[in-house]
Amino acid sequence: MNSNIRRYKVEGTRKLSNYFWAIFIGIGSSFFFLIGLVSSNSNSIISNNISFFPQGIIMSFYGLIGILFSLYLWLTILWSIGSGFNEFNRKKKMIRIFRWGFPGKNRRINLYYKFEEIKAIKLEKKIGLNTIQSLYLQIINKKEIPLFKLGYSATYELLEKQAADLAKFLNVSLII
Prior knowledge:
Elements: E1 5-10, H1 16-38, H2 46-49, H3 52-79, E2 84-89, E3 94-100, E4 108-114, E5 118-126, E6 132-139, E7 144-150, H4 156-170, E8 173-175
Parallel strand pairs: 5-8
Antiparallel strand pairs: 1-2, 2-3, 3-4, 5-6, 6-7
């Protein structure tokens, strides 16, 4: 890799956990929907235990909502929402942040910043049920722009090292 250009890949929605939840919710909600529909048939075994009104209707409704949510998850995985890269070009003194969005006229999200606009690199760790480790680019007179958000899979030390290297490369301070 060129020593004047650094490019970091951003994963987006194509994570193992999203595949798991899309499959799990899809299968579970399909069964809910089918059991709700089968309960309307008075000759089925299920209709002896579950009456169509109100249990069958409610199960069909929840099943349909689950199927739609699973479809949404599959589409975000297919379209790779949120994936892209962060490119830091020392030669041009420019930063490019690229992400894939939802289909439409704003599918490609490109943000460009000059090195002079960069105030600092901020490293943040929120500890809780779902620990989130984040790396932000602080822009002068603007918001913080997230560069990376990591779940439990990556170590904080690795992100800390990457943040220090990036701050040194950009010649800005590191806020922890």
